[in-house]
Amino acid sequence: MSEQRVAKRKTHTKSRRGCLPCKQRHTKCNEARPRCANCIRLDITCTWPEATNGSSPNPSSGEGHASPASHGPAPDLSISNFDLSIPDMRLLHHWTSRGYKALHPSLTNRSDLWRNAMIELGFEHPFLLHGILALSAIHKGSFLLQAQRQDLLQQADLHISLALDPFRRHLETPNDQAAVPMFVLSSVLLTYNFGSVQERPEDSISSLHHCLMLLNGIKVVIGPHWGKIKDSPVLAQMFETSSPDAIQLLNTLSRGEKRHEILRLTELTELMLDTHDKTACAEAIEDLHAVAIRVRHVRIDRDEYPIILYWAVSLTSRFYELLVAHNPVACIITVHFIALIAQCRPVWWLEKWPRWLLAHTEQLLGATPDLLEWLHWPREVIGSASAQVIATPTPMSSWSPPVASLVQTPRNEANMSSPG
Fold it and tell me: CB burial class (10 A; 0-12, 13-18, 19+) of residue 97?
């Protein structure tokens, strides 16, 4: 009879009370606690959904239980029983020995922020640790051939799912306790989405649009808790390049400079667009020019990417609508933005994107040779970067602002600092 019942259960298409990893992979779970057979086989953490309808979970389920209570004023999604499997420990070792160094170009010799402080924060708030482990898996897999990275991609997918579930619930019920790890995880998710695209997407423009919208989504996390976030000593370094004071100083240093290869794009808006769309693109060009002249004055021991990515935070919703619709002018402007990234010191999670965006835009504009001429400067820059001739920001030894003065309340939403 026992064998017959087991055989009958195999005909079910899903587990009604299965663990979260099996549900994520759409795999039949045998519902054994504290670790199901699939999680034991894969040597991964086995976590379980919250019991509903007043029923209590299996008494032996405490070890693997990861979900918070579904009632109360603000869920506490920090858990103390995060079990690291051997594959998880390998990912953690990879991150603390190698992965963190590749996150941004200035981190290797400057700080243990992502090596130690963020890991400690992740131990207090495991949903953040899940995000960091997912990013570590993507970074580790980026060095392997596609056929060799499947296990790492599966690990990354599992960890990012375990990070996103608490993340979404915190968005629904914000609280100050989770404000800092939520902001850090937002930055991790942005990097993860750029870095997880290992091969050129079929539609690079739409893929970039998705990533840039994630960057804008960080403002949602910042909004209710800016006071808590801006005063966090853990985050001080993340804001030092993109704080309002830092940007004001960069504006002073770059005053009067011109980047004509960007300013000339205003001629294109005059030729191609109606009034409403012209305004959105003209503002995008103006902001892109401001970014382009600022980044020249970022010190070599500082991170230039928050300044570059700041452009995406300032874009209007109309420009994003034009970009997702593959409007030629919006695409050309965006390729100039990605060319600025190509001029920066390379980071693994962004270095392929300039080639992808340029190739897709060239394909998009293939039937209009006159428009292809507007890609002359991005072609030169991106081609040069691909050949490893990469320009770096000019060191400015005269600029060394105290970190304490760089974190101030922004005057408006557009001035909110982008992630570091």
Answer: exposed
Is residue 152 assigned to a domain?
yes
Asked whether the predicted pLDDT for residue 245 surpasses 90, the reply is no
Q: Which residue has the tokens 């001080």?
A: 236
The answer on 314 and 178 residing in a single domain is: no
Q: Kindly report the CATH number assigned to the domain that includes residue 47.
A: 4.10.240.10
The residue range of the domain holding 150 is 86-199
Phi, psi of 48 (to 5 degrees): -130, 145
Give the per-residue SS3 of 321-385. Answer: HHHHCCCHHHHHHHHHHHHHHHHCCCCCCCCCHHHHHHHHHHHHCCCCHHHHHHHHHHHHHHHHH
Reported as a single tens digit per residue, the pLDDT across 173-223 is 878 888 899 999 999 999 999 999 988 999 999 999 999 988 877 777 777
The torsion angle over the Cα atoms of residues 294, 295, 296 and 298, rounded to 10 degrees, is 100
- Answer yes or no: do 176 and 268 share one domain: no
Query: Is residue 208 a part of any domain in this protein?
Result: no
| pLDDT for 312 beyond 70 | yes
Residue where one domain finishes, among candidates 199, 228, 247: 199
Question: What's the pTM?
Answer: 0.72
Q: Are residues 240 and 122 in the same domain?
A: no
What is the model's pLDDT at position 375?
A: 96
Looking at 65-69, 207-211, 276-280, 317-321, which range is the least confident one? Answer: 65-69
Distance CA 33, CA 48 (A): 9
Q: Is residue 249 part of a domain?
A: yes
> Number of folded domains in the chain?
3
Please say whether the beta carbons of 134 and 156 come within 8 A: yes
Q: What is the per-residue pLDDT across 356-411, written as a single tens digit (0 to 9) for each?
A: 999 999 999 998 889 999 999 999 999 876 554 333 433 332 233 322 222 222 32
pLDDT at 247: 87
CA torsion angle for 206, 207, 210, 215 (degrees, to 10)? -130
Taking the C-alpha atoms of residue 113 and residue 96, their distance in angstroms, rounded to an integer, is: 11
Residue 16 shares a structural domain with residue 98: no
Q: Is residue 388 part of a domain?
A: yes
Q: Check whether residue 248 and residue 177 sit in a common domain.
A: no
Radius of gyration of the chain (CA): 24
